[in-house]
Amino acid sequence: MTKAVFIASAHSRYNDVPGQAYHFPAQYLRRVEQAVGDWVIFYAGRRGGNLGYYAVQRVERIVQDTTMDGHWLALLSPGTLLDFEMAVPRLRPDGTPYETGLPLSRGSNTAAVRLVSDGDFAAIIMAGLNSGTDADCLPRSGPLPVASSSPVPGFAEMVQPFDGLPGPDALRDRILTSRAFRDASFARTVKRAYGARCAMSGLSLRNGGGRPEVEAAHILPVESNGPDTVLNGLALSGTLHWMFDRGLVSVDDDHSILVAKDSVADEVGARLLTADRRLILPADPRCHPHSAFLEWHRRKVFKG
Fold this sequence. Notes:
Helix content is 24%, strand content 19%. With 304 residues, it is of the alpha+beta class. The protein folds into two domains: 4-128, ph1033 like fold (Roll); 135-300, no CATH class. Strand 10 and strand 11 form a beta hairpin.
């Protein structure tokens, strides 16, 4: 198994399904085969909005595309998707590429699939999962993060081996599959995207320590293989998070808020929800909840 970088673009002619499948031509088949069972990092260049390296996910298997000759699909493990908290540019702070040996322009830069060393993979992961210390993503309780090169307190200790760079097992077992770490990272990403404001009530409450009281809710829950991406998240107050998880409220495709009429009194809804009964969405459209996750919640959880 080998780690890789997959180039993604919303304007690509390929039939990618974000979080589920990566579409590629046969020329990259050998490279993708080497990545099966291992982790890949997604990168979006100029045509993809200049996001840089922005997420990591595990490749599950490869199937041939029966609708397009000479093309294949890398099927991704949905529950392993993890957004980076900070997009990582192509170049390190010293001006050299994160992918060692990658030229500054042309050449292998144009390859849609690139294999990466464990060291380069570790460096990108460390940079992408750097949590920062901005007020919107502070935890509701517990110790406050400190400004450092480590993503969260304890991160460096979790991945630091006795010598050298973190190996693949350390990253895989202690970070990328750590439920506690993924939950904390997901919460920071969602709260940051929504400006620490409840998407359903519009309230932005902070406790005495300046910590936001808003919580990050998975739309498709972790128990149902829901990914840790902002597209699968909503920032909600504690009460509305509880109501959302129990299907008392949901969200339509037009982002209007749905209320289970037989379960929530009109006066309760009037006090808790925005006047126009619509979500307050992140300023960046790329962070809006995905319609597939919202549809799942309406179909499987909502009591309306």
